[in-house]
Amino acid sequence: MVYDFIEGAAGREVGVSRNEAAFDNIMLQPRVMENVSQRSLTASILDQSFNVPFGVAPMGMCNLACPNADRFLAEMANKFNFPICLSSAASSSIEDMAKWAGHRAWFQLYFSSSEEASMSMVDRALKAGFETLVLTVDVPQVSRRVRDLRNGFNLPFKMTPRAFWDFATHPRWSLGTLTAGAPSPKNFVDKDGNSKFNRSGNRAGANWDFFQLLRKKWPGKLIVKGVTSTEDAQRVQSLGADAIYVSNHGGRQLDSVPPAIRLLPLIRSAVSSDFPLLFDSGVRNGEDVIKALALGADFVMLGRPALLALGAEGVTGLNALLKCFTEDISVVLAQLGMTSISDLKKNVIFDVTATR
Ligand SMILES: Cc1cc2nc3c(=O)[nH]c(=O)nc-3n(C[C@H](O)[C@H](O)[C@H](O)COP(=O)(O)O)c2cc1C
What parts of the chain have a pLDDT lower than 70? Predict the structure, then answer.
C-alpha cells in the first residue's frame, strides 16, 4: 500500500512514464581535453547557497516510507547542505522540522478547508522561523489514483481486511512503524490538536486572489509550485512571486500532462532570464539533474527516488542515493568539460536536428 502510494500516479500512469522517457530522449554532448580536475557543485537559489544543485521536493506522509523519515531527510539536508520542503500534509510538525533543519527547511502550503485555516498554518510556519514558503497550486482537487483506490489508501487511515493482510505480510515495516507511532498528518489540526486533514478535500481555494493575499502576508521568499503554462508563469512573476517551481506533480494529478522537462525551456523563455526557476518531475539520476539545469532550471528537486531510498534502507538508503546523485553530477560535469554548475548552458544538450 505504501509503495503504491509513493510510486502511483493519476489515471493509467502514462504521465509519469512520459516524464521519465522525455529525460531519456535528451542527450548530452561530451567535450574533451578541458582542465576538469577540480569541480564544484555549489549552487545558489533565493539568496541561499547550497553544496549541491538539488534538494528534496515536498512530499506528504514521508514517515510512511520508514519511521523517522522526515528526521532523516533533515539529517541529510544538514550533512549534504541542501534544502528540503516540509509538506502541509507531513507526518512531522512544522515546529519539529524547524528545529531539525533550520533555514534548510522550506514550508510547502496546500490551501486546506478555508482561508483562515490555511493562513493559520502560514502563521505557524512564520513563528517557527521558516523563511521560504512554497505554495502548491496544481492540486485543486486530488486526482483519482487507481492504486490508492484499489488499496483503500486514505487519511485518516482505515483498517480493512486488505490492509490488515498487507501489514501482516510486511512485519519489519509494521513493527517499526507501530513502535515509532503510526504516522498521521501533523499540521492540519483543530484547537484541541486533533488532525483535520481531509486528503480528498477541495484545495481550489489556492487561486489568484489567495496568492496575492499570501504575497502581502509572507515576508520571506515565496515560491509557486506546479506551474506548467507560460501564461501562468508570466502572471505568477508579475504578481510578485520570488520563484516558480516548474512541476507536473510527477504525473500524480493529470495523466495527459506534457512531460515537465519539455515545458521547462518554454517557461524559461517566458519569464525574465534571471527569474529563479526550480524544477521536478521525472528526475532519476545525476544526468537528469544536469539536463534540467542546462534547460533553464536554477535548482532541481528530487521526489520519488528519495522516498523509495528511505523505504528500502532508511537513512542508509537515503545517504547512498544522495552520494550517487552527487558523484554522478560531478562525473557528468567532467564529461561535459565543465568545472562548475554555473557553466551549464543549453549548448551541453546534443542537438538532434543537426543529424537530420
Ligand atoms: C508520495 C508523494 C507525496 C507527495 N506529496 C506532495 C505534497 O504534499 N505537496 C506537494 O507539493 N507535492 C507533493 N508531491 C509531489 C512532489 O513534490 C513532486 O512534485 C513529484 O514527486 C515529482 O515527481 P517525481 O517524484 O516523479 O520526480 C508528492 C509526491 C509523492 C511521490
Answer: 190-195
- Phi, psi values for residue 109, rounded to 5°: -105, 130
CA–centroid distance, residue 34 to ligand 1 (Å): 38
132-136 and 221-227 strand pairing: parallel
Active site residue 249: yes
Which atom of ligand 1 lies closest to the CA of 19?
Answer: 26
Structural domain boundaries, residue 21: 2-355
Q: At 76, which CATH number?
A: 3.20.20.70
Instruction: List strand residue ranges (DSSP E) for 83-212, in order.
Output: 84-87, 105-109, 132-136
Q: How far is the CA of 303 from the centre of ligand 1 (A)?
A: 6
> Which residue's alpha carbon is at the smallest distance from atom 29 of ligand 1?
59
**DSSP codes of every residue in 180-248:** H------SSB-TTS-B---TTS--TT-SHHHHHHHHHH--SEEEEEEE--HHHHHHHHHTT-SEEEE--
Residue 17: half-sphere exposure toward Cβ, Cα within 13 Å: 4
Looking at the structure of the chain, the number of domains it has is 1
Q: What is the pLDDT of residues 176-206, one digit of tens each?
A: 998 998 898 999 876 666 667 777 788 889 9
